[in-house]
Automatic annotation (TrEMBL):
Domain GCVT N-terminal: 25-154
Protein name: GCVT N-terminal domain-containing protein
InterPro entries: GcvT/YgfZ_C, GCVT_N, YgfZ/GCV_T_CS, YgfZ/GcvT
Cited Pfam families: GCV_T
GO biological process, one term: iron-sulfur cluster assembly
């Protein structure tokens, strides 16, 4: 986290651990108000890798699952970086900033992913740098989010195109959904924006933003779940994070074969788990039709405003259709499957 930005947030009662804002005084109240109130969150728990140089687009096109040709100054994309076996090492959000490409991914993965990608640069004219401390990201969410951003920044939010981006030279607004927008700007401008937003939006910790992300059905691969899933298992094909029209990238053959041969047995679902025990990414799930074998795994989980936990979970589709799914064991709490905000490909 940028030191000046960290000091600014601490002065406004932010409790910060491991460069991430945990809460602003009362994590329970913040979480309970998040579903209905306009909130703002610092997003330093994600970091930014900057790709610059004349070969940056070509380089990334050969490395990731999304189609870089669809990214432009006004269009971002979700995507994934996979092993040669098609297993996801990282999911990310990618957008254009001036002449560069910016990749946003969890702080716990960014350094290792940057190092791995750098190994494949070879003679390509591309440079990878950590831009996390240069660009502050603020999440605004709630029923008045778009109107508030327009009033404070002057930037319009267009939701007719998913992941639309608007810029004015000082700041950018990335429209994640009609009620969830990410602002990207400098440290100096971020401080001014925060103070203006603070009059109309409640500051909240990262768990509140993570809950909104889960409710939106957006998977975030963490160190605990690296190499567990194919892109389609976490619904990246449903949110534009996989292209089946582009050329080769690590894992492309297996990802394409799974798509065209119809062998996808597991999908990601939104679920609520009524448990006082902590639900974590990577936790195993069980159902009686699978005997002692796991029928799935938790992708992301966070405390729910209603108590218990809300989660994204990759589960054997036949098990979801036929039987109850349990956390950690057949005697564990049952997953209450809920509707995702998007439809899955047939």
């Amino acid at each position: 986290m940028n030191p000046a930005w960290q000091t600014f947030l601490r002065d406004r009662h932010a409790v910060i651990e491991n460069d991430s804002v945990v809460h602003f005084g009362n994590i329970t109240t913040e979480l309970q108000e998040t579903p209905t109130t306009t909130v703002m969150a610092d997003l330093s728990h994600h970091r930014i890798i900057r790709f610059s140089g004349e070969d940056a687009n070509t380089f990334l096109q050969n490395q990731v699952s999304c189609d870089i040709r669809e990214i432009n100054p006004n269009q971002a994309q979700y995507g994934s970086y996979c092993t040669p076996k098609g297993r996801i090492l990282a999911t990310f959000l990618l957008w254009q900033h001036h002449d560069d490409l910016l990749m946003q991914l969890p702080a716990g993965l960014s350094a290792a992913i940057q190092k791995r990608l750098t190994m494949y640069v070879l003679r390509a004219k591309v440079q990878l740098t950590d831009a996390s401390n240069d660009l502050i990201r603020i999440g605004i969410a709630g029923p008045d989010a778009a109107l508030l951003i327009k009033d404070v920044t002057g930037l319009p939010c267009h939701f007719d195109h998913p992941l639309h981006v608007t810029h004015d030279g000082v700041q950018s607004a990335l429209c994640l959904s009609p009620q969830r927008i990410e602002l990207i700007t400098s440290v100096e401008n971020a401080a001014l924006l925060w103070q203006r937003f603070d009059q109309h939006a409640k500051p909240v910790g990262m768990d509140c933003w993570n809950w909104l992300n889960i409710e939106s059905g957006i998977p975030v691969i963490l160190p605990e779940t690296q190499e567990m899933f194919l892109p389609q298992m976490v619904n990246l094909d449903a949110i534009g994070g996989v292209s089946f029209k582009k050329g080769c990238y690590p894992g492309q053959e297996i990802v394409a074969r799974t798509q065209y041969l119809g062998k996808l047995k597991r999908r990601m679902f939104l679920a609520h788990i009524d448990s006082t025990q902590t639900i974590k990414a990577g936790d195993a799930l069980y159902s009686s039709d699978m005997d002692d074998q796991s029928s799935g795994n938790i992708v992301n989980a966070t405390p729910s405003p209603q108590g218990g936990f809300d989660a994204l979970a990759v589960i054997q589709q036949s098990s979801v259709d036929a039987i109850e799914i349990h956390w950690q064991s057949l005697q564990g709490p049952t997953l209450e499957i809920q509707s995702l905000p998007y439809s899955l490909p047939a």
